[in-house]
TrEMBL record:
GO terms for cellular component: membrane. Its main location: other. It is found in: Cell envelope; Membrane. Belongs to the polygalacturonase-inhibiting protein family. Residues 27-65 form the Leucine-rich repeat-containing N-terminal plant-type domain. Residues 1-22 form the signal peptide. The keyword Nuclease does not apply. This is Leucine-rich repeat-containing N-terminal plant-type domain-containing protein. Keywords: Glycoprotein, Leucine-rich repeat, Membrane, Repeat, Signal. It holds the Pfam family LRR_8. InterPro entries: Leu-rich_rpt, LRR_dom_sf, LRR_N_plant-typ, PGIP.
Length: 335
């Protein structure tokens, strides 16, 4: 009995700790967060969260630096699309000067442009605004972040062209602008990303014109330009010395000779080239790309026999069909 009451006594002390111990949260950061809560005042979820009487470093979506206790993360990420957060990106985020990770994810009722006050967040490493109703342009101030490693603006309603200055981001490792309504060309400057270059995802936009040949200077691990209106050559993206794993150029208007391609034959796991105007033959070297897991060259203008000595056949008819005169297993025999 005595032990039990001691335990109970101890437990109640722990549970009341917000009052018993000094709180970690920086008061200015807490003030800014409560402003954000006010800006999102229609949110039923937030109503019951972020209790002003408690330490903000233990609040949901908040990360604090363990030594300085400054708020370093505001990560509003939902597994399913949530219509609970309605309105614009709150201007009060600019009052969280130590933010390294700002994320709004799966919030279709978050609308308006990318708030320019974000440019004040000099410490940002990860900026994710994805699967929201955010519209307007990709702002050029984004290129000023000296520490930015991840820029993910995918699955929004962004319009306009891609700012050429993004290539100045000195630490970028992943650039996602896919699934928007971006127009114009891929900037020429993209060849001047710090080498080897970030993973680049630009699929499902309305990008047009030629892919800048300067991109061939990079050693990209992943590049996805699928479902756009890109035309002309893309052969410079390949290279046997490159470490490319994922190359997706499907559903464009690209036209180049596949026969002579020098493929990144050590690393390539994903090669989708379907729905273009690619011509020539399937190079023998593709036989030796052991790591290849996904492959599709359907709906092009390819000709000649599919290499029979390896096991390209494993990808089946649908990876090869609808070409000009491609033949041999898994397609019908060559005449
Ligand atoms: C939410 O905030 C706006 C602007 O601050 C205000 O006009 C509105 O009355 C508030 N709504 C509620 C439900 O508190
Ligand atoms: C990859 O391609 C290069 C150049 O074509 C060739 O020298 C090398 O043997 C190939 N590697 C493999 C594993 O096939
Ligand atoms: C290749 O792409 C075509 C056209 O989009 C599709 O019908 C087919 O299922 C794909 N095949 C494979 C193996 O991915």
């Amino acid at each position: 009995m005595l032990l039990e009451s001691l335990v109970l006594c101890f437990l109640s002390l722990v549970l009341l700790s917000p009052f018993a111990t000094s709180e970690q949260c920086n008061p200015q950061d807490k003030k800014a967060l409560l402003e954000i809560k006010k800006e999102f005042n229609t949110s039923e979820v937030l109503q019951n969260l972020w209790n002003p009487k408690t330490d903000c470093c233990i609040w949901v979506w908040i990360e604090c630096d363990p030594t300085t206790n400054r708020v370093t993360g505001l990560v509003m990420k939902f597994d399913e699309p949530s219509n609970d957060i309605v309105g614009h990106i709150p201007s009060s985020v600019a009052q969280l000067p130590y933010l390294e990770h700002l994320e709004f994810n799966n919030l279709p009722t978050l609308t308006g442009p990318i708030n320019p006050v974000i440019s004040n967040l000099k410490h940002l490493k990860y900026l994710v605004i994805s699967s929201t109703g955010i519209s307007g342009q990709v702002p050029s101030f984004l290129s000023g972040f000296q520490n930015l490693e991840l820029l993910d603006l995918s699955l929004n309603s962004l319009t306009g062209t891609i700012p050429s200055t993004l290539s100045q981001l000195p630490k970028i490792t992943t650039l996602r602008l896919d699934n928007n309504k971006l127009t114009g060309q891929i900037p020429n400057s993209f060849g001047s990303f710090r080498k080897p270059g970030p993973e680049i995802y630009l699929s499902n936009n309305r990008l047009s014109g030629h892919i800048p040949a300067s991109l061939g200077q990079l050693d990209l691990e992943s590049i996805d330009l699928s479902v756009n209106r890109l035309e002309g050559d893309a052969s410079f993206l390949f290279g046997s010395k490159k470490r490319t794993r994922i190359l997706d150029l499907s559903r464009n208007l690209l036209a180049f000779d596949l026969s002579k391609l020098d493929l990144p034959n050590k690393s390539l796991t994903f090669l989708h080239l379907d729905h273009n105007y690619i011509y020539g033959k399937i190079p023998q070297v593709l036989n030796k790309v052991n790591a290849l897991e996904r492959f599709n060259v359907s709906y092009n203008l390819l000709c000649g026999e599919i290499p029979q000595t390896g096991d390209l056949q494993r990808f089946g008819v649908f990876a090869f069909y609808h070409n000009k005169c491609l033949c041999g297993s898994p397609l019908p025999k060559c005449k």
